[in-house]
Amino acid sequence: GRAGFHQILLVGAGALGSRHLQSMCALPALEIFVIEPDPEARQRCQLLPQIASYPYIRWYSSVAEIPCRLFDVAIL
Q1: Nearest to 20 by CA among 29, 10, 33, 35
Q2: What is the value of pTM for the model shown?
Q3: DSSP-assigned beta bridge partners for residue 75
Q4: Which of 2, 12, 26, 60 could connect to 65 by a Cys-Cys bridge, CB 3.0–4.6 Å?
């Protein structure tokens, strides 16, 4: 990961998950890994201004795609 950044895993970016993600985007020094298999839910989430402008979000469709296996926090 990025030096000095905390790595966060968020599983699900639907109605509740997108609110968690919006809150995380207000914090500095986070690298956020999001698992969202539903393309429509992912697109709705990515259109939210706070999320669209946050540069350190990585999107995945499944756990198997994530290169990192150690996180500081996981939100399930």
Answers
A1: 10
A2: 0.93
A3: 10
A4: 60
